[in-house]
Give the backbone structure.
Amino acid sequence: MNVLVTGGAGYIGSHVCVELLEQGHNVTVFDNFSNSSRNVLERISQVAGKRPSLYEGDLRKAQNIGCAILTHKPDAVMHFAGLKAVGESVIKPLDYYETNVSGTVNMLKAMQAFNVNHLVFSSSATVYAPPTTPDDLPLTESSALGPVSPYGRSKLAVEHVLADYAAANPYASIAMLRYFNPIGAHPSGLIGEDPKGIPNNLLPYIAQVAVGKLPHLTLLGHGFDTPDGTGIRDYVHIMDLAEGHLAALDYLTAGFEGCFAMNLGTGQGHSVLEVIAAFERASGKTIPIVEGTPRPGDIAVCYADASKAQELLGWKATCTLADMCADAWRWQSRNPEGYGRRQ
Ligand code: NAD
Ligand code: UD1
């Protein structure tokens, strides 16, 4: 199949490109490199033995995404392009609605114009209302929705757009995958997560402390109602997540019409202290810790009910936290500066 991967140079998109290429698909990356490096394309081809095509463009420009779809005539689109920093979304909400929501509308119009029906969309567990009691967990696809940040609301807005679009278009075939906490890297150590500036999320932060780029990890709260007092999350290996996308694509192209939302997680939670200990074991490094205060809106516990993905797609995450840390460390230690200077 010809697959257009928007945001294919980013963290998740690059790993999915490798899986697509290895399964024999033709891949075109559509990206404006606003949060990624051009060097990733060479790395993808080193890992997969085949280079994706590139259409450099901006989703906010309808003509760019229209031309990409007209030129490459994809059978399916995997849509990762978007903005994802929660804190930034509070300061610049319009940028988030413009890229995430208007950008997706531009893409859907082009897909509709050129009869491209299959779409896999990167949604997020952040669309759920924060779980407040143990009865709220695990989060199932029918748990209450209620994102608390402009970023989360922009992802939920896209879900509404996609559901409405599918309701009006009988051939639309759309999977909205709600990721929990993707971490880790390709086991080759050639591609991985390369955040711009100081990382916002736990794993890349720990990895940069371990490699000596940052002095210590700040524990953002240790008074949560959890066994060790630190936040619990459902960390899922990026390669498991990538396989989930391929399973979703197979499901769509096997004849599914409509739109569905699905959790991609392991169904298991790990605390911050457990993650630190696992990373220390994987890297042989000590992670110095400084105690800080919780981020506004941070929750104690969040993990998925991942049974729908297993029932519908036959997909189940198999990697352990130790695998995730070992692969993240291989990537970080071999590429302390990530992909290098962004070009
Ligand atoms: P990323 O920032 O690494 O990748 C996004 C890519 O999109 C980048 O290559 C960036 O350059 C590109 N992009 C951004 N704006 C664009 C535009 N206007 N036009 C064209 N390209 C543009 O992020 P990621 O971690 O790979 O996340 C991918 C998707 O998954 C995002 O939509 C994000 O909201 C979603 N998601 C990520 C996580 C996570 O923890 N990483 C969790 C849940 C959902
Ligand atoms: C973040 C995003 C969320 C997104 C999710 C999945 C924020 C506010 N939320 O949430 O929208 O869906 O990732 O990618 O960014 N921690 C520390 N020190 C740090 C960083 C994190 O102690 O320097 C703790 C946090 O308090 C939390 C845990 O580590 O308990 C995980 O944090 P993080 O990786 O940011 O993930 P989420 O909180 O799930």
Notes: The domain at 2-334 is CATH 3.40.50.720 (Rossmann fold). The first strand starts at residue 2 and ends at 6. The mean pLDDT is 97.
